[in-house]
Amino acid sequence: MHNKTNEIFFGEQQEIRRFGIGFTIAVVFVVFSALVIYFYYSAVTTFQDENEKIKQSHTELQKNLLKTRVDQAYSFVESIRLSSENRLKDTLKERVVEAYNAASFIYEKYKGKESEASIKGRIKDALEKMRYEDGKSYVWITDYNNTAITYPTNKSLEGKYIGDEKDNAGNYTIKKQSETARSQKEGFLRDYYSKKGESSSKKFEQIAFVKDFGRFDWYFGSAVFLDDFNRKVQDEALSALAGLRFDNNYIFVDTVDGYALLMNGQKLEKPEFVMELSDKNGVKIIKEQLKAAKLTQSGGYVEYVWHEPSLGKDMPHLSFCRMIDDWGWKIGSGLYTGRINDEIERRKEAFRQKIIKDTLIILSFMVILLFIGFVAAQIVDKKILAIFERINEKATALAADKESKEHGDGVL
């Protein structure tokens, strides 16, 4: 009976010892694993957040860069246009001043020598010979009663009242010219007329300059259609824009009806229809750019895939476009956005390598900690074993003492 009790007691002790060792190692493993999982989760989350911030920051930087480039190109075109329009105004004024000087010379030369009618005739004859722009522009004479003294494109109106004449926008152009010349002595005006060879319903803007003659209640004037002038200015602007470069990027120009004027940084000799141009994902590039350009007055952005000549392959692109409304132009620029993706991939690869390196280090620490845990468990086990041995010795002594007393009682 005594031996049986000792065996059971010894077995329980061994179970407690095994549990103590296993529990110690398990606690070390669980705590360490939890720390490792937290470390990896925190590292990956932080890395992903950093990548997203880098990507967003890079995208905003690229958008601002594109908008700045296009705005600069737009301002460049406006400066060319303003400079050219000022040159046009100077040219118009020079023509009228030339007519004024010629008329004044004739007047002074024949004044008092010939009749007023003869002098007027000489001036009319001299000015009618002044033709410009292949005969499309000329100098006319009108009096302040709004009577046509000369009307080079319609001789039948000479000597007749033309004050009720309206342009295609409904403006009383002759009355406005008379008022300007009389009150201001000279000035520029804008009006709208149809052109020979074009539909009468189609209106073309023209700029005119008028100047008071100071005699006979006459004023002189000349005008030029702006579309003829604009074609020259547009050609000048396209040539200038073709020379603009931003690293490997450039300015492109298309018309609102889908014709490319400036493509891949090259001025096209003949406009090319590109309205249906699509990228490999089916994005109608020109149509989307037009939508973006018209979205706000300052323009908008479009993402698509474009063949990058400098790299020789299709690449993700971002473009910014805005309108030059009165020319019917969409002007824009684009850039390859894949560089940030390449940078992100490089970061990911570096991060993977770091994770592998850290994992090896962590595994080394885990082995060391498990070994330390095992040693600690062994130390604890020895302590427990020593306690159990003392307990066993006392239990054995008590059992032996009890047995001795029982035998003693039996003898008596």
Keywords:
alpha+beta, Beta-Lactamase, six-stranded antiparallel beta sheet, 6 helices, 12 strands, rod-shaped
Describe the structure.
This protein is of the alpha+beta class and 412 residues long. Among the domains are: 81-230, 2-Layer Sandwich (Beta-Lactamase); 243-340, PAS domain (Beta-Lactamase, 2-Layer Sandwich). 57% of the residues lie in helices and 20% in strands. It is built from 6 helices and 12 strands. The chain has helices spanning 2-110, 116-128, 173-184, 226-242, 285-295, 338-411, and strands spanning 131-132, 137-143, 148-150, 186-193, 204-212, 218-225, 251-255, 259-263, 266-273, 300-308, 313-324, 329-336. The strands form 2 sheets. Strands 1, 2, 3, 4, 5 and 6 form a 6-stranded antiparallel β-sheet that branches. Strands 9-8-7-12-11-10 form a 6-stranded antiparallel β-sheet. Strand 8 and strand 9 form a beta hairpin. Helix 1 runs antiparallel to helix 2 and helix 1 (2-110) runs antiparallel to helix 6 (338-411). The radius of gyration is 48 Å and the shape is rod-shaped. It starts with a helix and ends with a helix.
Number of strands: 12
**CATH-level-4 superfamily name of the domain at 81-230:** PAS domain
CATH topology of the domain at 81-230: Beta-Lactamase
Question: Rg to the nearest angstrom?
Answer: 48 Å
User: What is the SS-derived class?
Assistant: alpha+beta
Helix content: 55-70%
Regions with pLDDT < 50 over 5+ consecutive residues? none
What portion of residues belong to β-strands?
15-25%
Number of helices: 6
* Largest sheet: number of strands, sense, barrel closure: 6 strands, antiparallel
Apparent shape: rod-shaped
CATH architecture of the domain at 81-230: 2-Layer Sandwich
Can you write the helix and strand succession as a string? HHEEEHEEEHEEEHEEEH
**First-to-last CA distance:** 24 Å
Q: Assign the CATH class of the domain at 81-230.
A: Alpha Beta
Mean pLDDT: 82
